[in-house]
Amino acid sequence: MTFAATVLTLYPEMFPGPLGVSLAGRALREGGWSCEAVQIRNFATDRHRSVDDTPAGGGAGMVLRADVLAAAVDSVADGRPVLAMTPRGAPLTQARVRQLAAGPGVVVLCGRFEGFDERLLEARNIEQVSIGDYILSGGEMGALVLLDACIRLLPGVMGAASSGDDESFETGLLEYPQYTRPYEWEGRTIPEVLRSGDHARIAAWRQSMAETDTRLRRPDLWERHEGARVQSPSGARRMKDDVT
Ligand code: SAH
Predict the structure, then answer these.
(1) Which residue's alpha carbon is nearest to atom 18 within ligand 1?
(2) CA 112 to CA 226: how far, in whole Å?
(3) CA of 159 to the centre of ligand 1 (A)
(4) Residue with the nearest Cα to atom 16 of ligand 1?
(5) Assuming Cys at both sites, which of 86, 121, 143, 217 could form a disulfide with 108, CB separation 3.0 to 4.6 Å?
(6) Which domains are delineated in the chain?
């Protein structure tokens, strides 16, 4: 099954963009996924082909019109999840990425200016996704991030790299630090345990580094990881999968 990505945007020339190179690019050429970029402006109905208008209630900028965007969404809707990129959305997680990658594909709506008329998101029950607590100039970069995260999980895309399973976030922890040759560089050596050949010791070291680094760098992740391991006060056991 091909993962079908449809992106609704005012800048279709941005796709596949960086997803046309490396492993994602090869998978695209080989039919492992498809990428369709649809120009939102094609769904404008007035003679100026306008897609936006001034904010109700006043204020700076322009807002994307519900009627024009709904026509664009409806033209491609086929049961795939429809997501809108917005800083007001739920932060994207590896768990959600995994679910999306296991499905038929996604329709991604890219905002510009001040974003979308809220009625569009309500009326079409569109899932709102944020890629982080900062403001981009448009949703296209966010869509590329979302698609990249999904595509690398598609069967066959990562090739021999069994990577994926102990990557940061997959376990609810950051990944342990990595090293490669040369053994000594600028007076720094690779941790001795990694040269021991003792797989049990190496695994234990990696687990302990993953825990220490998560605790120090991402106390928010650590708290959720720990929370997932203990009974919650209500007695319901929270699943690790819910928190990554
Ligand atoms: N005025 C809006 C921001 C608009 S930024 C607000 O304060 O919420 C313009 C567009 O860029 C948005 O509609 C959205 O599609 C995209 N965008 C900006 N930041 C984003 C983020 N952190 N995650 C996902 N999309 C984002």
Answers:
(1) 136
(2) 39
(3) 34
(4) 139
(5) 143
(6) 3-151 (3.40.1280.10), 184-239 (no CATH)
